[in-house]
Design a protein that fits this description.
Elements lengths: L12 H4 L7 E5 L2 E5 L2 H9 L1 H8 L2 E3 L6 E3 L4 E5 L2 E5 L3 H9 L1 H8 L12
Antiparallel strand pairs: 1-2, 3-4, 5-6
Helix pairs in contact: 2-3, 4-5
Length: 118
Protein backbone atom coordinates (compact mmCIF):
# COMPACT_ATOMS: atom_id res chain seq x y z
CA UNK A 1 0.00 0.00 0.00
CA UNK A 2 1.28 3.40 -0.88
CA UNK A 3 0.05 6.57 0.71
CA UNK A 4 1.44 10.01 -0.05
CA UNK A 5 3.78 11.28 2.64
CA UNK A 6 5.12 14.83 2.45
CA UNK A 7 8.83 14.35 1.66
CA UNK A 8 9.72 17.42 3.72
CA UNK A 9 7.91 16.96 7.04
CA UNK A 10 6.91 13.27 6.84
CA UNK A 11 3.20 13.88 7.42
CA UNK A 12 0.63 11.59 5.83
CA UNK A 13 -1.48 13.59 3.42
CA UNK A 14 -4.37 11.20 4.13
CA UNK A 15 -4.16 11.95 7.88
CA UNK A 16 -4.17 15.66 7.09
CA UNK A 17 -7.17 15.25 4.78
CA UNK A 18 -5.25 16.45 1.70
CA UNK A 19 -6.09 14.58 -1.49
CA UNK A 20 -3.53 14.31 -4.28
CA UNK A 21 -5.50 16.78 -6.38
CA UNK A 22 -5.38 19.36 -3.54
CA UNK A 23 -1.75 18.75 -2.52
CA UNK A 24 1.12 21.04 -3.43
CA UNK A 25 3.32 19.27 -5.97
CA UNK A 26 6.85 19.47 -7.25
CA UNK A 27 8.68 17.42 -9.86
CA UNK A 28 12.20 16.37 -8.93
CA UNK A 29 14.39 14.27 -11.20
CA UNK A 30 11.40 13.40 -13.36
CA UNK A 31 9.17 12.20 -10.51
CA UNK A 32 6.21 14.10 -9.09
CA UNK A 33 6.02 14.45 -5.30
CA UNK A 34 3.06 15.51 -3.16
CA UNK A 35 3.45 17.96 -0.26
CA UNK A 36 1.18 19.09 2.54
CA UNK A 37 1.78 22.78 1.79
CA UNK A 38 3.72 25.16 -0.42
CA UNK A 39 6.06 25.93 2.49
CA UNK A 40 7.23 22.32 2.47
CA UNK A 41 7.78 22.52 -1.30
CA UNK A 42 9.94 25.61 -0.80
CA UNK A 43 12.04 23.93 1.91
CA UNK A 44 12.38 20.77 -0.17
CA UNK A 45 13.60 22.55 -3.30
CA UNK A 46 16.40 24.16 -1.30
CA UNK A 47 17.88 20.76 -0.29
CA UNK A 48 15.93 17.73 -1.60
CA UNK A 49 18.47 15.11 -0.54
CA UNK A 50 18.42 16.33 3.07
CA UNK A 51 14.67 15.82 3.26
CA UNK A 52 14.79 12.46 1.48
CA UNK A 53 17.30 11.26 4.09
CA UNK A 54 14.99 12.39 6.89
CA UNK A 55 11.76 10.92 5.50
CA UNK A 56 12.96 7.88 3.52
CA UNK A 57 11.41 4.68 4.79
CA UNK A 58 8.43 6.32 6.45
CA UNK A 59 5.24 4.28 6.62
CA UNK A 60 1.70 5.15 7.63
CA UNK A 61 -0.29 2.81 9.86
CA UNK A 62 -3.40 1.97 7.83
CA UNK A 63 -5.63 2.03 10.92
CA UNK A 64 -4.65 5.12 12.92
CA UNK A 65 -2.64 6.91 10.19
CA UNK A 66 0.37 7.38 12.47
CA UNK A 67 3.62 8.01 10.61
CA UNK A 68 6.54 5.79 11.63
CA UNK A 69 9.98 4.96 10.39
CA UNK A 70 9.82 1.49 8.83
CA UNK A 71 12.30 0.08 11.35
CA UNK A 72 10.06 1.25 14.23
CA UNK A 73 6.90 -0.30 12.76
CA UNK A 74 5.40 -3.76 13.05
CA UNK A 75 5.29 -5.74 9.81
CA UNK A 76 2.46 -8.24 9.45
CA UNK A 77 1.82 -10.49 6.51
CA UNK A 78 -1.89 -10.32 5.75
CA UNK A 79 -3.27 -12.24 2.77
CA UNK A 80 0.21 -12.56 1.31
CA UNK A 81 1.06 -8.86 1.62
CA UNK A 82 3.48 -7.25 4.05
CA UNK A 83 1.70 -4.38 5.79
CA UNK A 84 3.33 -2.04 8.30
CA UNK A 85 1.51 -0.85 11.41
CA UNK A 86 2.20 1.13 14.55
CA UNK A 87 2.56 -1.13 17.61
CA UNK A 88 -1.07 -0.84 18.76
CA UNK A 89 -2.85 -4.24 18.76
CA UNK A 90 -6.19 -2.49 18.12
CA UNK A 91 -4.84 -1.16 14.82
CA UNK A 92 -3.96 -4.69 13.71
CA UNK A 93 -7.39 -5.97 14.75
CA UNK A 94 -9.29 -3.10 13.11
CA UNK A 95 -7.42 -3.68 9.86
CA UNK A 96 -8.14 -7.41 9.91
CA UNK A 97 -11.85 -6.67 10.49
CA UNK A 98 -12.14 -4.33 7.50
CA UNK A 99 -9.03 -4.57 5.29
CA UNK A 100 -10.74 -3.22 2.18
CA UNK A 101 -11.75 0.02 3.91
CA UNK A 102 -8.33 0.65 5.47
CA UNK A 103 -6.51 -0.19 2.26
CA UNK A 104 -8.66 2.20 0.24
CA UNK A 105 -8.36 4.90 2.88
CA UNK A 106 -4.59 4.64 2.94
CA UNK A 107 -4.55 4.95 -0.84
CA UNK A 108 -6.76 8.06 -0.54
CA UNK A 109 -9.77 6.42 -2.20
CA UNK A 110 -12.17 6.85 0.76
CA UNK A 111 -12.56 9.48 3.46
CA UNK A 112 -10.34 9.35 6.52
CA UNK A 113 -13.11 9.60 9.06
CA UNK A 114 -14.87 6.23 9.29
CA UNK A 115 -14.99 3.65 10.68
CA UNK A 116 -13.23 4.92 13.78
CA UNK A 117 -10.94 2.95 16.01
CA UNK A 118 -12.78 1.46 18.98
Amino acid sequence: MKTPICPTCGCSLVRLGISKDKAATHTYQGEEYYFCCQGCVDLFTADPEKYFRETRGMIVCPSCLAEKRREAAVKLNIAGRDIYFCHCPHCHENFRNNPEHYTKRLEGSVAETSPRLK
